[in-house]
Input
Amino acid sequence: MDTDIQTKIFSSFQDFKALVKKWRADNETIVFTNGCFDVIHHGHVDSLEKSAQLGTKLIVGLNSDESVRLLKGFDRPVMDEKARAIILAAFGFVDAVILFSEETPAKLVAQINPNVLVKGKQYEVHEIAGHDTVLKNGGKVITLDLVPGVSTSDIIQKIKSLK
Output
């Protein structure tokens, strides 16, 4: 595997802290989004690419396997955290992937303090984990339109129906 991809993956904020500090010193505009990315599809690519356009560095918070099970149930994730992190880090517009084990990335958002926090329009701003921290520190919270008719749950159901 490409070592450039591996250098974008961080197992905790502690591992990432020095890099985000450097980006801040370089006046980068840091964008943060997050998700399970259990079965990565073109809707994910669309939202990640649009998120990257909102700044100069895109950080993706990735739910760990444990976190995905808490949110989605015992039969998820379909792909383990290592596989999901590698796929996300392979995108040229993703600058870092950081795993988190909590149900929400609120703690991670507070540690990173991004300039821009991004989620899909299925969420109201007040429902987005970390929105309060970002807004309090002068950042922006942006919701993006989703690709219609595309969801991981629908893809999983379709695969199951093929049996």
In short: The first strand starts at residue 9 and ends at 10. Strands lie at 9-10, 30-35, 57-63, 96-100, 116-120, 140-144.
